[in-house]
Specification:
Strand content: under 5%
Radius of gyration: 19 Å
Strand order of the largest sheet: 1-2
Shape: globular
Number of helices: 9
Oligomer: single chain
Number of strands: 2
Helix content: over 70%
Structural class: mainly alpha
Largest sheet: 2 strands, antiparallel
Distance between the termini: 35 Å
């Protein structure tokens, strides 16, 4: 007996919806800490976002333009949180902003270029580098935020001060080490803090860039 085939992005989206629904039920029942932990939520939303990207992906040039707008929107939202909601970014957050900007620049150049398949492969590689670094930084901050209180060092020097007084290599090492301000969650949506959502975004952008290689 034959059954109608289900495209794998739809299947991935269905799985993600089940995961998210399960997590919401756990939160309602107040047992989220037992099963609906941060890694579970991040995995569910990453699968959901990636599946939606594949299902809604427009033609190549328009997709690059949309990607650029999304990156610009994320930076605008970050500035809103900083200057309107008074949520100061930690050094790791600022590094992630740079990765978002770099990803946006790649998409902007690709939009202006309107590449064929060969060019799309180049832009996919650049996106993997920019967004991959951003995803790594975001994942590291998620890990820092998951540590018990007192396990992370107290708040350190501001990024501006470090850039003025320390060599760049020392600045990067100190930022990657993390400090107290990086452990604060700040703004939270659906149980996930900013770096968790940033990680979801970076993975979705990588998936989109790879899919655009074959999207004419």
């Amino acid at each position: 007996m034959r059954y109608t085939a289900l495209a794998w992005p739809f299947a991935a989206l269905l799985v993600a919806v089940v995961f998210v629904a399960q997590d919401l039920v756990f939160q309602i029942l107040d047992v989220a800490n037992l099963v609906g932990h941060t890694a579970f939520r991040i995995a569910a939303w990453t699968v959901a976002a990636s599946a939606m990207v594949l299902l809604l992906l427009p033609p190549r040039r328009l997709a690059y333009a949309v990607g650029f707008v999304v990156c610009a929107g994320l930076i605008a939202w970050a500035l809103y949180l900083q200057y309107v909601r008074d949520i100061e970014p930690c050094p790791l957050c600022i590094f992630q902003r740079v990765a978002v900007i770099a990803t946006g620049v790649v998409f902007l150049v690709a939009t202006l270029h309107g590449p064929g398949r060969g060019g799309a492969m180049l832009y996919a590689a650049l996106t993997i580098v920019a967004a991959g670094i951003g995803a790594g930084l975001a994942a590291w901050q998620v890990w820092i935020q998951a540590q018990p209180k007192g396990a992370v060092a107290a708040c350190g020097m501001g990024l501006d001060y470090m850039l003025e007084t320390l060599p760049l290599t020392d600045v990067i090492a100190r930022v990657l080490k993390g400090s107290g301000e990086c452990a604060e969650q700040g703004w939270v949506l659906l149980g996930l803090a900013i770096p968790a959502w940033t990680f979801v975004f970076f993975i979705a952008m990588i998936v989109a860039a790879l899919a655009l290689v074959r999207r004419d």
